[in-house]
Amino acid sequence: MKLSKTSMIVLMTILSLMAIPWLVYSKTKSTPLPSQSTMGFSASKAYDHVKYLVQKVGPRPAGSKSELKAAQYISYVLNQNGWKVRQQPFSKVVVREVSVMQREQQVELINSQNIIAELPGKRPDTIVIGAHYDSANLNAPGAVDNASGVGVLLELARILSQEPHEETYQLIFFGAEEYGLVGSQYYTTQADLSAVRWMFNVDMVGTPLEIDVAGKKSAPPELIRQVTSIAKERQIPFHLSRDFILMTRESSQGGASDFSSFLDKGIPAFGLGISGRPAGYFHRPEDRLERVTLEEMQNVGDYSLSLLKTVRMEKLGPYVWDELYLPFQIEKNVFILPSVGIRIFTFLTFLLTGLIIIKFMRKNTEKQRLNWKKVFVILGVTLMLSLIVMGLSGIGEMIWQGVKQVQTIYFAYPSLFLMARIGIALGTFIFIASWVYKLPLARDPQLYWFTGVMLLLGVSLVMALTRIDLAFPFVVWLLCLDLQFFFPSIILVLIGPYFIYRLHFELLNSQQWVSYYEAIHNYFLVFLGIYSLLLIPFFLAGLHVAISKAQFSRKLLYRLRKPALLVTGLLVLSLGLVPAYTTDYPQSVTVREEWSGSSDGVVHVFSDERLPRQLVNDLSGQEGKSLYVPILNEKPPISVETFVLEKKGNLERTLDISLKLNYTSEPYLIRLKLDSAHPFEVKTDDFLPMSKLPRKLQLKGVLQPSGNYSILLQRTPPQKTMIQISVETPGIMTCSLEGIFADPSPRIQVQHALISADYQIRFKEDFQF
């Protein structure tokens, strides 16, 4: 059957008409808000709780005495408001597997506790509200992250305890969230969730509001509709985040905060946080009380109270829902395309693509057989063009990294460097494309279209078979390329990969942006290959339009050649004016007392980048990334006695190692790094209880790029004064013991507007057995 142009347009119209109703069907419905509580949320009372946690308790890393002190305070406030309170202590072994960014296997024992408070209602149906109360590290006061969330929940506890209510409320304050949602994962594996209707979590209070609805699973669409409707009614600026393709989706942590653990168990849940790229104080000493504002606490508190009074979920306990939907946000309006709609859209797009390809093949058969040699030549030239453009797009960063001797030159303004990359890539493409017409390439524009559509069809098909929602960005791109067959237009070329752009925008405005940029720079060749392949369909689509309108395109490209070269040069030069650090995004510097054995200690001041010249001059050091200041005539914070019993077998020997530790004060972390030139296996029920290890996991040395085998074991408090491990190995074993302490009174105080200083004390000693 020969298809006319008219019939293809009709088919496209039908496809569009079938897709649109799914969007319309899922439009956010407005839900009337209930009358306001007579009690009302008090931001000042919530702020008082934040103030106590930050100023009286201070940094609260998992397992620390200060975290326990915070737990006692939270329990006291809840008891005062009539809640039934219990603590849920846990001791969990967490395994950090070897990855691209982490070469060593790390096994950690995390000790902490959850605080669970319940306020029974007339019905057992339960709504859970959560917030973690630990802070990121020894030096982070954790005002915004997440004393602010705790303050909101404690104020909600006061209000809810004084109002009549049908449902049962449960407030959970999670420990060890910063170690990878350890507290919430422990709770959901131990709790009976059969009476839970839904859950929401408050992690970092601020605006614009981030409504996060995805971990390894996604929240039910009905919950999203109600939650976003209330935000819209209250005129609260918000951003709906689903991370449906990005890093957290399939990671071991599986989400941004503790609500993700509930989604994993089939409980409708979402999180409230701060939208966009984390501010420079995130997980840093600058996360102090002044970062928390009464206005933002009032907004989030009122909104949270409205959620509790308004949201209604029909089902009770764990259940299964459609997870592969796609949410779209246009200002404050949210539309949801269900997975059925995505499948229909994908099927029709594949059908349309197939029909157009058949039409194209028949047309070529009538003239002559398709010249596959030309297709492969086009593909090769386009790949080379993509590699050149992608390789040169980062030339601005490379030049200024060398001149300024700063690796993370993009730290303060990553969006500027990203836009510069795009501008340089575009300028490079225009300049090279203006010469392409001189190459002996095919002049048939539809050959370029055919090559591009076949590539996208293959990628879209593989993605659709993997997971249908992941395929959507590529299927939309494929549809635009289909339309381009009839209407060659630069607009379609630019619109096609829109959702690919959008995914990167979401990534660069998330907590993963730093690790993403680091991965790009550390594995440049890998990302060069990936993005060069992604550029091929884009360039093919552009060349299809250019050759379709050859005379106009040739003149335009010729006229743009010199301006493109000039703008590219100006972009490269202008990047030198962008500061790497600002007062909002300062340079991270560690000031650490370091002790080794019985030797005198030193104060080690170091950073991943070159230390500022002013700091080096103040400390009378030499320029570089680190400097040392000696500590004389003082004793180290730990002394170690070792005892070893060796048992020899035929090919193996077993080392029973005992380490007796004497502390001047208890360290926060104790680490054992075991290293050998030969494979080895570790057993310990003392330092890390073997019974708590995941099933089938053995503590074995992992092969490193150096050729040695190693493993890192660590635990949070309470620490033991005697550590016993058994190691089976044929060779010499190196054991490094390391203790990390907080440093509340550092010997050297760093006062610099563009520096954020971490103060620590470390003891390290190496032993060979």
Question: How is this fold's topology laid out?
Answer:
Layout: H1 5-25, H2 43-57, H3 65-80, E1 84-96, E2 106-119, E3 126-132, H4 143-160, E4 168-174, H5 182-190, E5 196-202, E6 209-212, H6 221-233, E7 238-241, H7 259-264, E8 269-274, H8 294-310, E9 326-330, E10 333-337, H9 339-367, H10 372-393, H11 395-404, H12 414-436, H13 445-466, H14 468-486, H15 490-495, H16 498-508, H17 513-522, H18 524-548, H19 550-574, E11 587-596, E12 602-606, H20 613-618, E13 626-630, E14 638-648, E15 653-663, E16 669-676, E17 681-683, E18 699-700, E19 702-703, E20 709-715, E21 722-729, E22 733-742, E23 755-768
Parallel strand pairs: 2-20, 3-4, 3-5, 5-8, 6-7, 11-23
Antiparallel strand pairs: 1-2, 2-4, 6-8, 9-10, 11-12, 12-13, 14-15, 15-21, 16-20, 16-22, 17-18, 17-21, 19-20, 22-23
Helix pairs in contact: 1-9, 2-4, 2-8, 4-8, 6-8, 9-13, 9-14, 10-12, 10-13, 10-18, 12-19, 13-14, 13-18, 18-19
